[in-house]
Design goal:
The complex is a heterodimer of chains A (221) and B (75). With 221 residues, chain A is mostly helical. Chain A has 6 helices and no strands. The relative contact order of chain B is 0.05. Chain B contains 3 helices and no strands. Classes of the chains: A mainly alpha (221), B mainly alpha (75). At the A-B interface, helix 1 and helix 6 of A face helix 1 and helix 3 of B.
Chain lengths: 221, 75
C-alpha cells in the first residue's frame, strides 16, 4: 500500500486497541454504572482529544498574532474545527450515557451545560471566520476570538464544574481519577485511547489543511 | 507541525501507568455474556467497522496525495 506517517499508524493501532481492550479487559464492578463504565474509553477520551486539539488551536492563534502566516492560521482554524467535531460527538455520547445512568438525556448538570455553552462559543468561531472576507483581517480577528474561546473552555469545563456540584466525576468534590472510578487496569486502556483519538483528530486536521491548500492553489491560478 | 510534538515522551509516561489488577465486589456485570464468548462477536464487528472506516480514510489520503503530486508537477 502506501507509506503512512508513523503517527497515523499509531493512531490506528491505539484506537483499535481501545476498542478491543475496552470491551474485553476487566473493569471495576460498580453499581449504577455496571458495564457502562466502559464508556470512559470512548466518551471521556473524545473530550480529552478535543481539549488537546483546542489547546493546539489556541497556541497557533497566539503564534499567528505574533507572526501572521497562512500556515499558523490554517492550523489554528482546522484544529478548532476538528475539536468541535469531537466535542459534538462527546456531547451526544454523553447524553446517551446520562439517559441510562442519571435517568435523563439532559440533567442540567453544571458540566453538561458548560459544555453546551463552550460548543456554542466555538460554533461562533466558525461563523466569525466565515463572515470576514479579507484573509488577513479574518486571521487576526479569529485568532483573538480563539484565545478568548479557549479561556471560556477552561472556565466552563475546568473551573465552574469544580466549584459547583456536578454529577461528573472529578467535580464538586467527586473524585475523578481516584481509586473509586478508575483502577490501573482501566488506565491501561484509557490513556492510550486518548492518544489514539488525538492522533486520529490530527490526521483529519492534516487532510483538511492539505485540501485547503490545494483549493487555494487552484483559485490562485 | 505534528511531527514536532514530542509524542514518544507521552507514550512512555502512559506505559508507566501499566501495573497490577484490581478486584471488584459482587456487582452483577455482563459476566454471562463474556463466559459464553459472545462478546467476542461484538468486538470483532466493531473492529471490522473501525478498520473499514480507516481503509476508506487511507484511500482518501491516497487520492489527495495524487492530486498534490499532479499540482506539483504542473508548477
Amino acid at each position: 500500500m502506501l507509506a503512512l506517517k508513523w503517527w497515523k499508524i499509531l493512531a490506528i493501532i491505539l484506537v483499535l486497541y481501545s476498542i478491543i481492550g475496552g470491551f474485553l479487559i476487566d473493569v471495576p464492578k460498580l453499581s449504577i454504572l455496571y458495564e457502562t463504565i466502559r464508556n470512559t474509553y470512548f466518551h471521556v477520551t473524545l473530550w480529552f482529544a478535543m481539549m488537546l486539539l483546542m489547546s493546539i488551536s489556541m497556541v497557533y492563534s497566539i503564534k499567528h498574532l505574533s507572526t501572521p502566516t497562512q500556515q499558523n492560521d490554517l492550523i489554528a482554524s482546522e484544529t478548532a474545527n476538528i475539536g468541535l467535531f469531537f466535542g459534538v460527538l462527546g456531547l451526544v455520547t454523553g447524553m446517551i450515557w446520562a439517559q441510562f445512568t442519571w435517568g435523563a438525556f439532559w440533567v442540567n448538570d453544571v458540566k453538561t451545560n458548560g459544555t453546551a455553552i463552550t460548543l456554542l462559543i466555538y460554533f461562533a468561531y466558525t461563523v466569525l471566520r466565515g463572515s470576514v472576507e479579507d484573509d488577513e483581517k479574518r486571521g487576526r480577528i479569529a485568532a483573538v476570538y480563539n484565545i478568548f474561546a479557549f479561556v471560556m473552555l477552561i472556565l466552563f469545563l475546568g473551573i465552574l464544574p469544580r466549584v459547583n456540584d456536578s454529577l461528573h466525576p472529578g467535580n464538586g468534590g467527586n473524585p475523578a481519577f481516584g481509586n473509586y472510578d478508575m483502577d490501573n487496569t482501566m488506565r491501561m486502556v484509557f490513556y492510550p485511547a486518548i492518544i489514539g483519538y488525538f492522533l486520529l483528530g490530527l490526521w483529519f486536521v492534516d487532510l483538511r489543511i492539505r485540501l485547503k491548500k490545494i483549493k487555494q492553489k487552484l483559485t490562485a491560478e | 507541525m505534528i511531527n514536532k510534538l514530542n509524542l514518544k515522551k507521552v507514550i512512555i509516561i502512559v506505559l508507566l501507568f501499566v501495573s497490577n489488577f484490581a478486584f471488584g465486589q459482587n456487582v452483577e456485570m455482563a459476566d454471562v455474556m463474556r463466559a459464553n464468548g459472545k462478546i467476542y462477536v461484538v468486538v470483532a464487528v466493531l473492529a471490522t467497522v473501525f478498520l473499514g472506516i480507516i481503509i476508506y480514510l487511507i484511500s482518501q489520503e491516497n487520492r489527495l496525495r495524487k492530486i498534490e503530486k499532479e499540482l506539483r508537477e504542473e508548477n
